[in-house]
Write a structure and sequence with these properties.
By secondary structure, the protein is an alpha/beta fold. The chain has helices at about 5-10, 50-60, 85-95, 110-115, 135-150; strands at about 65-70, 75-80, 95-100, 120-125. The chain folds into two domains: about 1-60, no CATH class; about 65-158, 3-Layer(aba) Sandwich (Aminopeptidase).
Amino acid sequence: MDSINPDGEAAGTRTNAHGVDLNRNSGYLWEPRYEKGSRYWSGPRAWSEPESQIVERLVTRLRPDVTIWYHQPYGVVEIPLGDPRISSIYAERVGMKFVDLEGFPGEYTNWQNTAFPGATAFIVEFSTKPATATATATRHVAAVRGALTPINGTKPTP
């Protein structure tokens, strides 16, 4: 999925068309945070946004073993609530720091990791440092393959 926030992407904002920070809108320990108009407003209630509802339905239907949420601008890989092995290997392979982002109420990764035990969802925060898209994509694709190999026992494809 390219983006769960096409309105925000088109407008160049973090929030959706309703002014909600979608990564604060899941049912995981949701609480009202910040004021409407803030770039981190959690919305009027958990799962209030159509985009959040789509994410919830899709993840619930697919139940992925691993989900990687790409954000920016911190240049780190999150230590997840789920199994840290995959994200740790990923961080090592892309040369990024592996840190505890301390999660936020309503965050999708924490919702996934608690709603689907045994699955792992984590955040990769791209940095704002310039890099070529091809080099970045190649490095991250290799990291995904390398991080999953020790877990599922398959050999990565070149």
